[in-house]
Amino acid sequence: MDRREFVKSSLVGAGAAAGLSSGGLPAAAAEKPQATAVLKLCSQDSRIPGKSLKEKAENLLKWGGVGLELGAIDVNRAKQARKELEGTGAGIAALCYGYIPLIDPDEEKRRKGVESLKKALEAAGEAGSTGVIFVPAFNQNPQLPFAEGRKVLVGLLPAVGEYAVKCGTRVLLEPLNRGEARFLNQLAVAASICRDCKSDGIDMMGDFYHMFIEETSDEGAFLSAGKYLHHVHLASRQRNLPGQDERSFVDGFRGLKRIGYQDYCSLECGCKGDPMVEIPKSFAFLKSEWKKATV
After folding, report:
1. What is the 3-state secondary structure (H, E, C) of 248-278?
2. I need a labelling partner for 208 at 20 to 30 A (CA). Which of 156, 230, 246, 271 fits?
3. Cα(115)–Cα(104) distance, integer angstroms
4. What distance in Å separates the CA atoms of residue 102 and residue 143, rounded to the nearest whole number?
5. pTM, rounded to two decimals
6. Do 191 and 225 contact (CB within 8 A), yes or no?
7. CATH class of the region 35-292
8. What is the predicted pLDDT for the residue at 17?
9. Using CA atoms, how far apart are residues 138 and 72, in angstroms rounded to an integer?
């Protein structure tokens, strides 16, 4: 029995008398959300075969996807991408920018980081993207200790959040596993930062690969994120396509259903084999896991 199953079995046994649901969650959290969750499969564009963004979108749509996640682009590229996808039916999901130095010990670098994040938000707004994925620091980056870094973030992000709202998009904090980034590892911690920022433009995402390492329950992690969750990365236990190893997505998808999740779930992973064959199989697997995730 792995740690996840141990935690679940322990909670079920102890939870009955405490008014907990079968998943070890408060009964109130187990109630069905007002909004019906949807599975909007998408992928980072680099994962999808195709000579152009339009060709990538056509392949994705053929396999049952609905959007593409792009990398760090500027406003001009955002305009071009939106034009290339016009009429295809494919949306533009999050823009994956990664590290932006907002908790660097150097105040000038933090100031430049804020300006960089604002430019990213301008591109996201122009593209019609759901948000800018932002990592406060990887392990190799200079960074403040957690308590001080968190205080700095909560001080800087509200103004950035206001700018995001003006651009028609949002900031998406990304928790990673501690082997990559020690500052932010769990969804509940990211959600607490979003809460304290008190801004409609400051939200977060979750990644099934990192969650397997850092969370004891996928469902519980997504419940802790709640209304702040606006993007999800999909990957197997070994960071390949979902379905290419024993990684289950049912528990996490149940959590997404409980919060009435409406945004994209995007492939961010490798692929064992021919992507033209394996990605359609992976999408079919994910749709099957979604059906199994009853609430």
Report:
1. CCHHHHHHHHHCCCCCEEEECCCCCCCHHHH
2. 156
3. 14
4. 9
5. 0.89
6. yes
7. alpha beta
8. 36
9. 17
Would you say 90 and 61 are in contact if contact means Cβ atoms under 8 Å apart? yes
Torsion of CA 50, 237, 189, 22, to 10 degrees: 120
Average confidence score pLDDT of the chain:
91
**72-98: pLDDT as tens digits:** 999 999 999 999 999 999 999 999 999
* Start-end of H helices in 168-274: 187-197, 208-214, 218-225, 250-258
Domain ranges of the chain: 35-292
Task: Quote the CA–CA distance of 204 and 16 in Å, as a whole number.
Answer: 32
Q: Are 29 and 225 in contact (CB under 8 A)?
A: no
- Give the H/E segment covering residue 172: strand 171-173
Residue 57: what residue type?
A
Query: Which of 187, 166, 86 shows the shortest CA–CA distance to 124?
Result: 166
